[in-house]
Amino acid sequence: MLKLAYNTNGLRNMPLEEAIKQISNHNYDGIEISLHKQHFHPVNINIEEVKKIKSTLKSSGLVLSDIATGCDDILSDDKFEPSIICKDSIGRKKRIELLIKTAE
User: Fold this and answer.
1) pTM for the model
2) Same domain for 43 and 74?
3) Does residue 15 have a cis peptide bond before it, meaning omega lies within 30 degrees of 0?
4) 39 within 8 A of 8, measured Cβ to Cβ
5) Do residues 45 and 29 share a domain?
6) Which of 22, 24, 66, 100 has the highest CB neighbour number within 10 Å of its CB?
7) Which long-range contacts does 10-17 make (Cβ < 8 Å, 24+ apart)?
């Protein structure tokens, strides 16, 4: 059976915990959390916030299907930059470090 997950990028106008509840209320099976300042900033988030997200996910019944790492405005005002294919090696390194921090 096909299962559906919703990307939180479309719900940036509300806190992540509320977005999780709304997605669950609309009968999705899972959630893809987008990295962005409004919901999940991997550099600035603390362990207590991560625990709260995990708890909210558990009580909602949603499965975390994946994390969207595009992050259009998390590293600069230049959309999606620096990227992992950025010509600037320092920029590429920043993106790679962000992805590693997210995985941790």
Assistant:
1) 0.82
2) no
3) no
4) yes
5) yes
6) 24
7) 12/36, 12/38, 12/39, 13/38, 15/39, 16/40, 16/53, 16/56, 17/52, 17/53, 17/56
Is the confidence at residue 104, as pLDDT, over 90?
Answer: no
What is the domain extent for residue 47? 1-68
Does one domain contain both 55 and 5?
yes
Residue 52: CB atoms within 10 Å: 13
Q: Which amino acid is at 59?
A: S
How many other C-beta atoms lie within 10 A of the C-beta of residue 31? Answer: 24
Span 33-71, pLDDT tens digits: 998 888 888 888 899 999 999 999 999 999 999 988 877
Q: Tell me: do 9 and 37 sit in the same domain.
A: yes
- Regarding whether 20 and 48 lie in a shared domain, the answer is yes
d(CA 84, CA 96): 7
How sure is the predictor about 79, in pLDDT bands with cuts at 50, 70 and 90? Answer: confident
